[in-house]
Amino acid sequence: MSGDGAVGEGIGARARRKEDARHLRGRGRFVGDIHMPGLREVAFLRSPVAHARILSKTKSPDHAVDTFFSEDLVGVAPIVTRSSIPGYKVSQYPILATDKVRFVGEPVAMCVAKNRAIAEDLIEQVEVGYDELPAIASCAGGRRDNSELLHPEWGDNLFLETFFDSGVDEVIARAPVSVELEMSCARQAMHPMEGKGVLAWWDDRADQLVVHTSTQVPHLIRAGLAECLGIAQAQIRVAPPDVGGGFGYKCLLQPEEVAVAWLAATFKKPFRWTEDRREHLVAGANARQHEYHIKAYADAQGRLLALDAEVSVDTGAYSVWPFTACLEAAQAGGNLPGPYHLAAYRCRTYSVATNKPPFAPYRGVARPGVCFAMEQVIDAIAQKVGREAWEVRRDNLVPASAMPYTNITNKHYDSGDYPEALVAAKDMIGLEAFRAGPRRDDKGRYLGIGFASFTEQSAHGTKVFASWGLPLVPGFDQAHVKLTPDGALEVAAGIHTIGQGLETTLAQIAHEQTRVPLKHIRVTLGDTAMTPFSTGAYASRGIVMSGGAVSRAAEVVAGRIKSIAAHLLQVEPAAVGFAEGRIFAANASVSYEDVGRAWYLRPDQLPETVNTAGLEATEGYKPDVDTGVFSYATHAVRLAVDAETGLVEILDYAIVEDCGRMVNPMIVEGQTYGGAAQGIGTALFEESPYDDNAQPLASTLLDYILPGPTELPSFRIDHRETLSPYSAHGIKGVGEGGAIAPPAAIVNAINDALSPLNAAIRQVPASPRRIREAIRRARPSQAVAPEAGAER
């Protein structure tokens, strides 16, 4: 069913976003907007080589006091991310490089000045001598026996190798159908509108280090800074301002954050660094790079019998804090079976250290890659057995009758109808009419349709993260709700907003419980001095975890409001209800302000048995089953491919998604639109290539192509609402889902279009060059020779 018909301001309403009032008027306050007396700007000298010993470091004599190397950062520890997983190898990520550099862009020195331009001029006067070493530029290079070692004490270049085998050999031996595919995903940069940024200063009155950083996880950053700086957490306040997007890039402790915080703690003055776009492209090219070798086995109708997979992830030079370098491969191995019933599964994963920036979780964390791989496998099986891909997909999806369903990797799918979403997407895209029509349009372009189905595990908590051996494990999220003396409602939660509309949706949940009008609800997020603890915004967890905490705290406060209102109205609390912004008992009513005034200003009006905790409450929350709740969707794409140029035009894009109870359908759609746009970038445009010396080849936006409005289709979305039995209000997360399916759906559609030419794409982005090469390999006589300088 759809939630679009909801009225009012609570759960299900299309309430306008509260935060837009300031952002649309240019009144947002980001790291770059903060001004303080005596503020000095920071610039970093970054390594120009991927792998080298540092032979010498020399400061300019005229500016030695404003220049800092690693040895100047007295008392600062490197970023060390440990894991309890057997076989995991620990790396030490220095704040500024010590004896070696391990990727182009690694910070080696920093300079401070009254503005960024002067600080960059000072950087030019710093001299560093390098003894260059062989670089590891690929997973294959890192896994060679004779490869150069990034961390010699390891003995190899593997952060971790994992192996899962449910027992597949017997199934493989009797399977009548098999396919074998090799697929890969390019490395990407994340490109939030606002790059990384941090401003730190010392508050003498509070005797506290104050850090304004563009982060998704302020409470975690406080813990990480305390660990690196040797300062008690109580002496650190992380107060993030507005954040211009995160996508996972900002849920890590960054060396720049530690360096700037050290400056402020040491010199008791304010310092700021903001990342420019070139820094982001060079030092932040750190996501999505997977390689898959999969053998799949099926029966004569295409039903999956077994999967035998090898997954390699290019994880870069260091392990990120707190999620480690191994999160991506762990997620890939665990999520590869996707929404399908699979009886036998074997998977080996490799987290390979290379001379590239550290790998970070990016919107969807491994699932865009595994969806891309698995959905191509489904299409390849369908082609092998001579059936429509959607039919084979439908027959393999976990049916609604099996819910709740625990799959072969112990993912506990809580609710949903996966086949129904697929059939709805098939009908939306008009498959039958398309198959009855021509395979080429009037421009001679080849036409195709592709599908991709996936699950989105959200709000997974203690058990899941503990099993990954992480140093910090999420538990209960907390929220504080308070009725003010004048009848407004204050909501405080430790999660932070990065553009996902939490100021609005958390207010809607608070309204659902208390019926305080939305315009009178104020939401404060993230500031460690003003909010209860949360591990932050990641893994599509915010609306489930913080939303649940707000719901629980607001429910407690609502009960206390009713108790005082009942005394004022001279009735029993059970006779009191909320309506039209007031508290009613039959035809009599009081206002929220009356209740607030009684507690704060006129205690003589209170009953003798009043709850002394007052009109405020802090509550913690996690779902009843903390292994996660599962949203899901099917994406369907119709497109045209020009075989001569390799250009792709998306003609229609349909999405059928189910994220449980929608708190705000308008925000759900916005999340899905934005995610799908990023997914189209992954599918067709975005790539951070490196040469054999691990030098980045896309350091400007002339080289790194992002999709714009003219490259994006008009998405059509059909909502379903299958409530989760485990979460408050049946809510599931939806923040990552839109980005997961587009690479798979688009490439499947390209392969469908190119099937008359026997050509297939197995790598993203499916650039014009790769499409033309695939056509040339398949049918050399029809291929078009690439022109000099043709785009990737």
Question: How would you characterize this protein structure?
Answer:
With 792 residues, this protein is of the alpha+beta class. 27% of the residues lie in helices and 23% in strands. The chain has 19 helices and 31 strands. The strands form eight sheets. The protein has a seven-stranded mixed sheet with strand order 3-7-1-14-11-12-13. Strands 9-17-16-15-10-31 form a six-stranded mixed sheet. The longest helix is centred in the last third of the chain and has 28 residues, at 542-569.
Secondary-structure blueprint:
Layout: H1 20-23, E1 40-46, E2 52-58, E3 67-68, E4 79-80, E5 92-93, E6 100-101, E7 107-113, H2 116-123, E8 127-132, H3 139-143, E9 158-165, H4 169-174, E10 177-185, E11 197-203, E12 208-213, H5 218-229, E13 236-238, H6 255-267, E14 271-274, H7 277-283, E15 290-298, E16 304-316, H8 327-335, E17 345-353, H9 367-385, H10 389-396, E18 405-406, E19 412-413, H11 418-429, H12 431-436, E20 446-458, H13 462-467, E21 477-483, E22 489-493, H14 502-514, E23 521-525, H15 542-569, E24 577-579, E25 582-585, E26 588-591, H16 592-600, E27 616-621, E28 629-641, E29 648-658, H17 665-685, E30 715-720, H18 742-754, E31 763-764, H19 768-778
Parallel strand pairs: 1-14, 10-31, 12-13, 16-17, 22-23, 29-30
Antiparallel strand pairs: 1-7, 2-6, 2-8, 3-7, 4-5, 9-17, 10-15, 11-12, 11-14, 15-16, 18-19, 20-28, 21-22, 21-27, 24-25, 25-26, 28-29
Helix pairs in contact: 8-9, 9-10, 9-18, 10-11, 14-15, 15-16, 17-18
